Description:
The complex is a heterodimer of chains A (about 230) and B (about 800).
Chain A: E1 2-12, E2 17-28, E3 33-37, H1 44-51, E4 59-64, E5 67-68, H2 74-81, E6 85-89, H3 100-110, H4 115-128, H5 144-156, E7 162-166, H6 174-189, E8 193-197, H7 201-204, E9 209-214, E10 217-223
Helix pairs in contact in A: 3-4, 3-5, 4-5, 5-6
Chain B: H1 2-15, H2 17-45, E1 57-66, E2 69-73, H3 80-87, E3 91-99, E4 103-107, E5 114-116, E6 119-122, H4 126-130, E7 134-137, E8 148-152, H5 153-159, E9 169-172, E10 176-184, E11 198-201, E12 220-224, H6 234-238, H7 240-252, H8 258-268, E13 271-278, H9 282-285, H10 299-326, H11 328-340, H12 345-382, H13 393-418, H14 423-427, H15 432-435, H16 438-471, E14 481-485, H17 494-503, E15 507-512, E16 524-529, E17 538-545, H18 549-552, E18 557-560, E19 573-577, H19 578-583, H20 588-591, E20 595-597, E21 611-617, E22 632-636, E23 642-647, H21 652-666, E24 673-676, H22 677-684, H23 686-720, H24 722-730, H25 735-769, H26 780-807, H27 810-815
Amino acid sequence: MIQIENLKKSFKTEEVETLALNNVNLKVEEGEFVAIMGPSGCGKSTLLNIIGMLDNPNEGYYHFDGQEVGGLKENQRTKIRKGNLGFVFQSFNLIDELTVFENVELPLIYLNMKKSEREQKVRAVLERMKIAHREKHFPQQLSGGQQQRVAIARAVVTNAKLILADEPTGNLDSKNGIEVMNLLTELNQEGTTIVMVTHSDRDSHYAHRVINLFDGQIVTESQNKPFEIGV
Amino acid sequence: MFKNHLKIAWRSLKKQPFFTFLNTFGLAVGMAGGLLISLFIYDELSFDNMFTDADRIYRIDVENKNGGEINRYASVAPLLGPTLHRDYSQIEMVTRFRNSNSKLIRRNDVQQNVKEDHVIGVDTTFFDMFGLELLVGDTQTALKDANTLILTKTAAEKHFGLNDALGQHLLVDNEEVYTVTGVIEDMPKNSFLRNHTVFISMASFDDAESIRWSNWNFPTFIKLIPNANIESLQTPLSTIYETYMIPWIQTFNPGYTIEDFRERRKTTGNYMKWSTIALPDIHLYSNDIEDELSPNSDIQNVYILSFIGIFLILLACVNFMNLSTAHSLKRAKEVGIRKTLGSDRLGLIRQFLTEAGLVSFVSLLLAIVIGVVFLPFFNELSGKAISIPFGSPFFWLVLIFATILLGLFSGSYPAFFLSRFMPVKVLKGGGESSVGGGKIRNSLVVFQFAISVFLIISTLVVFQQLEFIQNKDLGFQKDQVLILEDTDAAGNQLMAFKQEVKQLGQVKQASLSSFLPTPSARSTITFFAEGDSLSNGKIFGKWKVDHDYVSTLDMEIIAGRDFDRQFTTDSTAIILNESAVAMFDIEPNQAIGMRITNDFAPRDKGNMTFFTVIGVIKNFHFESLRNNINAMSLSLGSNSNRMVVKLNAGDFSKTISSIEDIWNAIAPGQPFNYYFMDDSFNETYKAEQRLGRIFITFTILSILIACLGLFGLAAFNAEKRTKEIGVRKVLGASINQITYKLTIDFLKLVGVAILISMPLGWYAMNRWLEDFSYRIEIGWQVFALAAFLAIIISIVTVSYQSIKAAVVNPIKSLRTE
Lengths: 231, 817
């Protein structure tokens, strides 16, 4: 599904050029659950942003589903992103002015889906995330765990093939964190590919594969044993 | 999608009441100002358009250059209109008016006179020309006979009642009996006849059929036949002098040929030029012209107000842009999420435009409320009686269209700006560094303050000029001078009345004359120096005064002497002003003893009447200070309709009632009308005073809007720098240092604005002052004061937010991360 070769990304300010990613090669198969780990500033998020087509690399190739997307313009990237990719952020990033229902509905609106169909899909996913009773609430009225469940609901409502999670448990206590991880695992078992950036050893154990980044390069890659859910 | 946009727009507005308030209120104030100004301009532009065939009606004006002086008149000789009608087929019809000023009018059976201020003579074609109908009476016959008149509804009701007026008799100026032959609807408020209440038949005026081409007393309107071009009259108008006037002058100058006249004109540079002005143009484009039927406005005022209106709305839009983009810190996250979820830029632009549209519609509602509340004040300010045409669909259409346009315009930059955010940057919470747009916001603040400072400068200059006019040495004393009007009504008791008034202890001096340095009677006559040919006349004012005139008004004789009762020969004496002396190319001293005449009789006959110049009076201002002082003369005469009374300081109301007592004893039943000369003087500068008030009002408005914007920006800035302030405080910065730091950034912008607006203000106001022959120099103090005001106002606006941010405990501000 994802094939990255010799990827380079640097950030320039007036005086310094920082190399965020240096010759990264990475392959993610459909249905995989990959965790990216590493210390602060090692380029995890940059890599995730490029995978999520929120940013372009300076050099190298990025094939998504067989299509080269590394050099696309913003509008073209948006088109591919729509419906294919779901995002889950550490800080949830829900729109404060919209209710739970409306937040989850938003990606469907951008897909120009009919209203009745949207309602049906949103209801189903809210049920599944066990947050349906809160659909009329605004994000600020929810706990962190609930907000992240809404965010996940929003990520999967389009039946996205790939979910990109950027420290999804970073702002949660351990109980809520485990709940979120279980949800992601569940989605993965149903066939959704997941790429997750995390600091947490515990969370990384949910993944099939852990990639360690250091100073913009992949230093180690390790396979995890299939993990018991609920530990 | 649109519903979604609207929903989120509404909620995000609701969530930020402070910003929403600043935004809507600022915009509403701008829109309300724009609305009122638009109504004003609409009214100004609508003048005289209500008359049928207004587009085919023109007035004939004449410009006369004589001895270096150029005068323009809205009235021509009585023969001109009918003659042109006879000779040129493109003229369908001609209507002449005859200026007649105010008259005392009463019913036969009533003692008490009523003063009608605007009485005018009109031709029988009056109704056909302007498409007017009579409420009572027959338009075919109403103005046919001498000593008939028609009244407006208001005037008719005053004297008789609407339905009883027809056929009744009225005594005019206590002498002549007129029959009421019709009642007409009151003239429209936005017409050149708006003040006129009594229309007298032209047949009642002796000079209506006069063949004197020099008698310029008849405002004359022509109507062209349909599809005729006014250009086709240019040649006829340019040949009036040679075709009609010269033959008439030759009748009493038999020896002169056309070539003689041409030669004479060439050497003197004198000319007479006839021109036309379209009826709807009269109100705005006919300035500096004598004998107007109603005071006109000036297209310049329309321009000035348009500029102010556009400024106001621009200011409000800029506010909107500024606050919206500043506020974007809060919106950046939302933009990021939406983009991540698949919204394209266009969708976001639409969303923000929807939001701007929503704000502008809310502002519109608020603006209408503000407009309604301030309409009476605005009417007073502008001297109009405008109402908001709520019943007109056109009005609403324009309003809604303008609002949408305004929303799109003010929302365009924020939409463009906000939709540009990159999700990668804003979603990581990197906030401030990624928002940007600071340069544009700063330039917008500079723009706003530049306009405000410009308006402050303009206001100061207008008021300084008014102050200058108020205190200028006019060459006569206007203070403590009482003017009694319509003293004619005392008949042969007038002199006795004057003597009795002079006896009053509180009265210093009194004089009888219809001619005053403030608006009153004027008469211009052609004079010839002894020995000069008829083609070498000098046209200047001839004021009939009495022996006490110069002393009553404290004028200064700079050569020769004043009129003196000791010299019986003074009945043919004349006093010239400096400008008149200059027309003869001599010095004041040389003028004494010179003989001049206004006799058109052939020069060889020898029995002409001459005036002997006995004195030269220092130039005094008898027209607006906009104009140079024209040539004029004083000579003795009776038959005066005004009495000038110079009072001693003291209780004026007591003095006035003493004078009234004398009047009532001498002229029972005649109205006692009086006013103070300085009031009348101030009236002359009403337009300037109005402009001053308009400037000050809209300056305050624009400053208010600019301050709203600055206030919002300061709040935003303080919020953005919360962390920085916290860190600085932890490191030991004092509250004062923080406040200073936050304030100085804005003051720099205001400084730039001041630098930009100064040359603009200097240039624009010098252009305005050019209209005045007598004017101030714009001093550095004006600019210093304007700068000082702008700085003080912005410090006050910004410091609240700065201090608020500076006193916050740093632990709190650092925790917000």
